[in-house]
């Protein structure tokens, strides 16, 4: 099964990076400002993009300052069943953030579009953690 895998290096404390990936204020600044998030194992987080139905992600792994994994339970049919993980590793004064979206059924045009947009997400995460300004969906040009 195809996977998307990307890495970004963020010059910020690991706790700040983890909070940006797991809390409403962080994910609102980085991904979308229309969301409902609970940073806990088993929680179902909801993310709204545009006018369609929301994406729902179940938190299936939650290890503070180390990793979080979401299982997509409702979204575009190509996303349902995929797992999105963020693994953090302290490397001197930076945090290596490895993002993976695994269990894609096929490499499609949507897969390629998402691959690009995960890169934008990681750039937004870096900007938010380092400079206080992310690039959520509502501020992007498509």
From TrEMBL:
InterPro entries named in the record: ASHA1/2-like_C (IPR013538), START-like_dom_sf (IPR023393)
Residue ranges constituting the Activator of Hsp90 ATPase homologue 1/2-like C-terminal domain according to the UniProt record: 11-129
CDD domains, per database record: SRPBCC_CalC_Aha1-like
Leader sequence segment: none
Record Pfam families: AHSA1
Protein family per UniProt: Belongs to the AHA1 family.
Name by which UniProt lists this protein: Activator of Hsp90 ATPase-like protein
Organism for this UniProt entry: Dongia mobilis
């Amino acid at each position: 099964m195809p996977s998307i895998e990307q890495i970004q290096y963020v010059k910020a404390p690991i706790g700040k990076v983890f909070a940006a990936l797991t809390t409403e204020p962080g994910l609102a600044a980085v991904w979308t400002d229309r969301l409902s998030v609970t940073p806990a194992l088993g929680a179902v987080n909801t993310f709204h993009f545009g006018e369609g139905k929301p994406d729902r992600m179940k938190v299936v792994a939650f290890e503070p300052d180390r990793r979080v994994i979401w299982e997509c339970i409702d979204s575009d049919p190509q996303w349902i069943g995929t797992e999105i993980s963020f693994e953090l590793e302290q490397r001197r004064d930076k945090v290596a953030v490895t993002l993976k979206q695994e269990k894609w059924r096929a490499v499609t045009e949507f897969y390629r579009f998402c691959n690009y947009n995960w890169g934008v997400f990681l750039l937004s995460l870096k900007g938010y953690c380092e400079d206080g300004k992310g690039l959520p969906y509502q501020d992007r040009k498509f």
